[in-house]
Design brief:
single chain, about 170 residues, alpha+beta, 5 strands, about 35% helix
């Protein structure tokens, strides 16, 4: 479970290499999607001016002060399998990027953009996306200057999250 343990990188110290970016994007496009439509697009940005403008739009993106890279995951509404399907498809691609980042020793932070929101529209405008391309999230990336890796995380009591017959099955041991 080490790959999914929270890492909490504090500061991004070094640039992400082109090879690492390519590996992150390769992981992203290997994600499952409805009807294998793969309705995603990716913007790879290292422009600090755009970072500052993104921060004006997204109130929880302070880490872009230090992060050397931002990937914006976008969904194509003309390519999706059904209404709003790009949301699930882009979530799968985003998770693959986050897992790949961890495997590469990178720190990453998912910066969500609520669908059909003013924030989403502002990011769409910032990156000059056509109407059918919707920004799903940003991912701040970099090599962490430090990490809390190895610190024991407190695990949630799963019995509060499991309902019905599965809970009874777990209690009975089978």
């Amino acid at each position: 479970l080490d790959i999914i343990m929270p890492q909490h990188p504090q500061i991004y110290a070094e640039k992400v290499t082109e090879q690492q970016v390519e590996q992150l994007l390769q992981a992203a496009v290997m994600a499952p999607s409805a009807q294998n439509r793969q309705p995603w697009h990716f913007i790879v940005c290292d422009d600090k001016t755009l970072f500052q403008q993104f921060q004006q739009i997204h109130p929880y993106s302070k880490m872009l002060d230090e992060a050397p890279l931002l990937i914006v995951v976008c969904g194509d509404t003309q390519q999706q399998a059904g209404p709003q399907f790009y949301l699930e498809d882009c979530a799968a691609a985003t998770e693959n990027i986050l897992l790949a980042a961890h495997a590469l020793g990178l720190g990453a932070c998912w910066l969500g953009l609520p669908p059909n929101s003013e924030r989403q529209a502002q990011v769409q405008q910032l990156f000059r996306m056509p109407e059918h391309i919707k920004p799903f999230c940003g991912i701040a990336l970099g090599v962490p200057a430090n990490s809390r890796r190895g610190q024991k995380e407190s695990w949630m009591d799963l019995s509060t999250k499991i309902f019905g017959s599965l809970r009874q099955c777990l209690r009975q041991g089978g």
